[in-house]
Write a structure and sequence with these properties.
The chain has 552 residues and is α/β, with parallel strands linked by helices. It is built from 19 helices and 15 strands.
Length: 552
Amino acid sequence: MLNQLIISNYALIDSADIRLENGFTVITGETGAGKSIMLGALALILGQRSDTSAMRDKEQKCVVEAHFNIKGYGLTPLFTSEDIDYDDNTVIRREILPSGKSRAFVNDTPVTLNFLKELTQHLIDIHSQHQNLLLGEFTFQLMVVDTVAGNDTIKTDYQNEYHKLRQLQKERAKLVEKNEKQKADRDYWEFQVNQLLEANLQEEEQVALEKELEQLNHIEEIQSALSIGQTLLSEQDPSVVDMLFQIENEISRVAPFINQGSELGQRLKSAYIELKDISVEIAGIVTATEFDPQRLRWVQERLDTIYSLQQKHHVDNVKALIEIRQNLEEKLSMLNSFDEQLTKLDQAIKQQLDSVTKLASELTKRRKSVFPNIKSTIEKQLHELGMPHARFEIAHNQSEQLREDGADEIQFLFTANKNGTLADIPKVASGGEMSRVMLSIKSLLSSTKGLPTIIFDEIDTGVSGEIADKMGRIMQTMANDIQVISITHLPQIAGKGSQHFKVFKNDDADQTVSQIKLLNNDERIEEIAGMLSGAQVSEAALTNARDLLGTN
């Protein structure tokens, strides 16, 4: 329940500290005194976006703070999910800075507006006059039925399974669309794959072929250089090898007589052996190196094939061409397995559809089961509220198309007249009748929804006298289960409150300020008498006020 509301620098309020009790609280005041300012401040607590125009002093920040007792509401998991400290006595605070920036806190931890909305939807319901229009909206009507039927768990299960079904259906549609698009490319892909397969590409061959082509293009230079080298090394007289052999013999002969002679002899011997081996190797290369025009032509054609494929596919190496071929093969494989994939998806969709349909049928059964209770409860209250001929029905149709909320199409129908034709509520109900229908529905919900606090903003519009008295009694009864706060202009309802606040304006030379005051019993008598008789309070009005308060 809402224990305390602290407001500073908001609209006409400089500062206010409102301490609320459980039960039925009423708020009264002259038109324009600022009764609805509290609702505007509470709207910030509920996550409504802020506006600097709401700030009384544009140089100071605006703060709205609400204290709730949330023990037993089962909200610990919600706090845990957001890493926020849970406390049975939870404080929600909104701040609007002069810069226009807004901040929100829960138990002094910064939170997002989305979290604020998610939390406060479990704490408070504000009913303003425009909400009467919800009576004609399908989503509101379905919410009423589901709340009375206690469908939270099964509806969550249904929606989870429905979303899985929709996801499978989307996957199927994407698969079919993708297959249709790719079918047009099948022939081209097959041509490309065959072309790459025929090329029989090897990852390292391009480098080897390019090196071989260089060799073949310079074969004459290579042969000339090798021949000259071989001649100089071993074929001319004397050759380099022969001369080195002779030098080595000479040095070895005198080696014992000179420093390092033995070392020089060994080095010359090694050089001789190395050059002799080189001469033999060059001779072998010369013999093996021949100009082969057919090989040259083949290497050039092979490289042309590789370069052409690289240019076509916008790559610069054989490895990339091989990867392209593999990717195309995978796409063709996917195309070839389309029927198999589609069959699997169709089977999964059928299975999921069976599950969703079963849950939808259970939802329908549970919804229809509470129609008589809703009808009888609302009609009974409407009769008590001065509409003895009022009838209320819930029309139901089974939709062939499953939706996120099930397969039910419902409509609230109403008539206030004897033998009247049932019709959509906003089309046939006056403002006062709509207020009474909505109060009856809210009363029904208060005993089933478990919402701790409900605020009525002049739900009594369009009614008076005995009907107002009965509306007050309904709110009193509702307050046995939840905290009820009513902003009212009717004395019959004000007299039913267990706690009574008055909103009034104070004017001085500089400004107008709205204030809110908790009235004691004598002040309540004066306030209600004024509501009965106007500015001039008569003794009869005071007596009547005492009667309404039950103090005579």
